Amino acid sequence: MVHQREIIMCLVLTVCSPVFGESWRASVTKNIDALVGSCVVLPCTFTHPGGGLSNSRLRGIWHRKDKWEEFFYHEDNTKILDSFKGRTKLMGRLGESNCTLEIIEVKDHDNGPFCFRVELVRKDNNQPTSEKFSFVEECAEIKMLHDPPKPKLGPLKTAIQGKPYTITCSIRHTCPSHPPKLTWTHGTVDDIIESHEDVYSGVWQTESVLSFIPEEKDDDSLLTCTATFNGNIRSNTDFRLNVKRTENYNHIIIPTVTAATTAVMFGLLCLFMTKKYK
């Protein structure tokens, strides 16, 4: 019955209120991957009629699409489904139209779809008013990944002894609040530059650039980049380094110089002897 009343109320608001029908909008990433055991962030923004509203005047709720009374997130923790308690939180401020949701310790049964609802609350008692809207046409669904993605290495090229060498390790993920940490089996902290980039629709990329001067002993060594995701889940990728040695001409130069020096000294000696006995 409660479910039916909420549906009727939202339909009435949509049909009878031009402001609601035209101005309340939400934008959610509808399909996103999540690594089981790690975390995921569901990007969400919304617009509302009129001027800006303070954070205290808005209440954000995430619920099931077909069961609006089953909450994935609610500011009242006692109303959240037991299987989600302590694992969800809003990442953004509602007053800034940010309704992004974070889920940690992702379970393979974290079934959606995940839908956002916004409610206006009264200033005097913080109770919801009749102005509320569930964006059931803009819900997020999660695709569970049971195996962590492997980092990508590049460019894979031959190193030259004594000359600067650079290699990049990158990994894509969907949890910017707890991005994976990339580590190398070679180099120090000073040799590494790390960056994070928003790629598209909730997908982020963490990148680590390793720069060093290869030595002869590095030839045929194994470079390994390890990605450690939130939840201590790991994956790695290897690359066997080929170091091209600097050409060494000492075996030619030294004998040549020695022979030339001997010849010059012998020539001078002969010249000296000739002058002496002449």
Automatic annotation (TrEMBL):
Keyword set, alphabetical order: Membrane, Signal, Transmembrane, Transmembrane helix
Domain Ig-like: from-to ranges: 151-242
Signal sequence range: 1-21
Gene3D superfamilies assigned: Immunoglobulins
InterPro entries: Ig-like_dom (IPR007110), Ig-like_dom_sf (IPR036179), Ig-like_fold (IPR013783)
Domain of life according to the entry: Eukaryota
Residue ranges of the TM segments: 252-272
Protein name per Swiss-Prot or TrEMBL: Ig-like domain-containing protein
Organism: Cyprinodon variegatus (Sheepshead minnow)
